[in-house]
């Protein structure tokens, strides 16, 4: 026995006998294969020499089923799209260079590490009226910021489940952003950067920004699930999309599902789908959640994010928006790379902005 | 002395312990140094039956070497502490084998060597030194309790010690910036910046990040890793794989937990068996996270009376060798970690800092 | 018919799989999409790849078609006035078409008066200065008064004071219905679609939602009440968007009797702005879930002798407040803010 490999013959047998289960096959196909004596993918190679017709003959499958089985063995399910590993060094480069979508409130962008990042799910939750839809509108508009200004220069997808998206408001926010960028260009001292900025601002109007915001209006949870299934396809057809906003996840899930176990399963399927889109299409995903009142044994009832403990793990970064003494505060409670931190923000006619210290109210 | 060292080194390799940089260390001359100086200590340790893990963590304290940080780091002296440590370990192996009288003591000797720290001393204390290679450890805890942070710290620690790390990220929580911060935290403040940068590059290159969104691509990846085991034997220059991290395994598996069908459970059992088999075959530690969901009656009884239970619940209890439960201590920035079964030890308290995770009695 | 209930065999999908699923009890779109992916594989006995293809086909058939914000902008700049000039100005012209506006206040604050004012503005003909549309007035509390409506209308539109026939025509455009409960309301709305189109209804007023909800579900059945509210809100919004009408809903207030009340029921509270932090402990009824459904919330506050209208939640308006009185002609604003 080769000591260097430390192979345990028991483990090996156990692994191989289950190897067929690890393939995404149809149950009847799997049982036919097992009856025919196939134990693992090695047997496909050994017995069937990787040929579909031989496999079909040996196991009693149809040619099509045999083809499916071989394909599954080769790629391992959805892993066909597996991008393969990246080294941490490459990831570090990405984290440094890749532009993030800003909220236009500097304090909040700071606690978010520069803004909302791609390849992850950022969740905003809060009471009604605290500004979740405003935040979504703002980031949809900011997603269009040209690269010359450090933006992601992209389009956005807004999945609206509550009917809260207001096109006029988006117009106001977009006009304010265009104004702001024009002012930045005018104040730029470096002539090279200035020419870049000028070129980028060519044709960059509020209408153009709004043409780049794709709205899906879902009136019920089935429509929401359908949109999520087809979103990958949509983004493939619209490769300029850099941001996906779901406003809100909680609305339908809280009322349309009585069976909690099913709700949890569907929510996790939805999250996996979103995570997969975020990674494979390299977009930022923003989800909006509501809050619910949770009675505590000690002390007053607390507001906690809705959809339960099992959903709390779905997002990569979680920001709770709330009111504190008449001011709006964003609290980053969960983040893989940043400590918990608070930031004050306000909502102006032009969108989400920092709180100015001089003026007591900026609304 | 040189010839002696070479002979012993190659004997060690023939007996199955693959230590890649033994040759390099010997060429550097540091191995001789290590062997000579620590022979006495090794003998003492073996005589007293001290756990090698403790020994290696404690030896710096005994020799009073300046610049050795907790967790066997030699970075402070800027002399490639990793190589020194590998040489030290190689010397220990050689010593064990030279003094061994039967298979059990070889096993015991070898198994005592393969404990590597996670980088958080409180957790390492709970684990008796760190993660043992070949062991499957589960971290279970509510959202934002530090699970991902500990995974990142362990990845950084193992890679910095020269082992390859495979990091499977399902939730977008991997952050290379954070790895860099942890890495810096392992070394003392006065470490030479150039050396730190070089070491960081090596560390980052050793971590491979995979994004997985469904269980079949995970199984595919695990089987690929199992196949690579044979490659390792043929390629001595390549660093051995030391750690597999899956963050989070429960989010991949919980969609399978539907009540209706058996196939879900079968797939879960396959994952469990493959994971354990892989850990043993490749002598790597496997660390994965399990999130929590709200329980009905069967809540985890912990100090804070929260009614949560692990997502991968009853059927999964026997899969990991050890299970650590994390919890946030409300009202503070501290977290508590405790081993869920086995020897009941006092729970450890830790907090997450900007470049390390440190325990309560931090220096 | 809602997308969820469409049968699978009517869609452009793999009919073999659809047949297999139907034999296992999975008939409609809802049955297919509301499942874990593994379930479909098991039920239909197909490979995962085929199951994914199938679900994708189903989704393509029922997913709503996207539009751009720019298109929406061109379509929905419409507003319906409430009749209170300062309030309309603050709201950017009035109540937004396609959304749910809520009025909250204590008894006697003037909620019904405000509703009647909005009703008058919507029903008055264009030549008189109104929106020239029909109104559906859902009168759960039996507070509607045709005479008061005409009185208010005359106050707002000078031309109606003399013209008797115009005033009566206005009243005829208002259809009053009295449902027994929330579920009754939802059913009736679905049935009213034809009438909505025929009479060019522009405004639906519900006076009051709290009354309907409380009548049907007592204090114990909070969970069912919440889900019925959510369903009602979704139906209302769907009609509002489809037919281009505005929905005005009246809500009551409840008093928060300290933390005891919070433990008793799960969701009484967190209506911010309406005394959420005040010592008087008043808050909007119907809980947080309903609060999330509402797009705009206007509070009528009465403190001592002073009455003020406060915009508490609005996607576009800043949170302002201004004083008002109730006069012969409905709500009148005393001063500009």
TrEMBL record, chain A:
GO molecular function: ATP binding; ATP-dependent DNA damage sensor activity; crossover junction DNA endonuclease activity; four-way junction DNA binding
Record-linked InterPro entries: DNA_recomb/repair_RecA-like, HR_Repair_Mediator, P-loop_NTPase, Rad51_C, RecA_ATP-bd
A Pfam cross-reference name: Rad51
Superkingdom classification of source: Eukaryota
Keywords: ATP-binding, DNA damage, DNA repair, Nucleotide-binding, Nucleus
Domain RecA family profile: 97-291
BP terms from Gene Ontology: meiotic DNA recombinase assembly; reciprocal meiotic recombination
Signal peptide from the UniProt entry: none
Keyword DNA damage (UniProt): yes
One CC-aspect GO term: Rad51B-Rad51C-Rad51D-XRCC2 complex
Nucleus in keyword set: yes
Subcellular location per the Swiss-Prot or TrEMBL entry: Nucleus
Main location: nucleus
UniProt protein name: DNA repair protein RAD51 homolog 3
Source organism of this protein record: Ostreococcus tauri
From TrEMBL, chain B:
GO cellular component: microtubule organizing center; Rad51B-Rad51C-Rad51D-XRCC2 complex; replication fork
Domain RecA family profile: 112-292
Keyword Nucleus part of the UniProt annotation: yes
Transmembrane parts of this sequence: none
Gene Ontology molecular functions: ATP binding; ATP-dependent DNA damage sensor activity; four-way junction DNA binding; single-stranded DNA binding
Cellular localization per UniProt: Nucleus
Principal place of residence: nucleus
Keyword presence, Amino-acid biosynthesis: no
A Pfam family the protein falls into: Rad51
Source domain of life: Eukaryota
Classification via Gene3D superfamilies: P-loop containing nucleotide triphosphate hydrolases (3.40.50.300)
Name of the protein this chain belongs to: DNA recombination and repair protein Rad51,C-terminal
UniProtKB/TrEMBL annotation, chain C:
GO terms, molecular function: ATP binding; ATP-dependent DNA damage sensor activity; double-stranded DNA binding; four-way junction DNA binding; single-stranded DNA binding
One Pfam family, short name: Rad51
Classification via SMART domains: AAA
GO biological process: double-strand break repair via homologous recombination
SUPFAM superfamilies reported for this sequence: P-loop containing nucleoside triphosphate hydrolases
GO cellular component, one term: Rad51B-Rad51C-Rad51D-XRCC2 complex
UniProt keyword terms in alphabetical order: ATP-binding, Nucleotide-binding
Domain RecA family profile: 76-253
Name of this protein: DNA recombination and repair protein Rad51,C-terminal
UniProt organism field: Ostreococcus tauri (Marine green alga)
Lineage: Eukaryota, Viridiplantae, Chlorophyta, Mamiellophyceae, Mamiellales
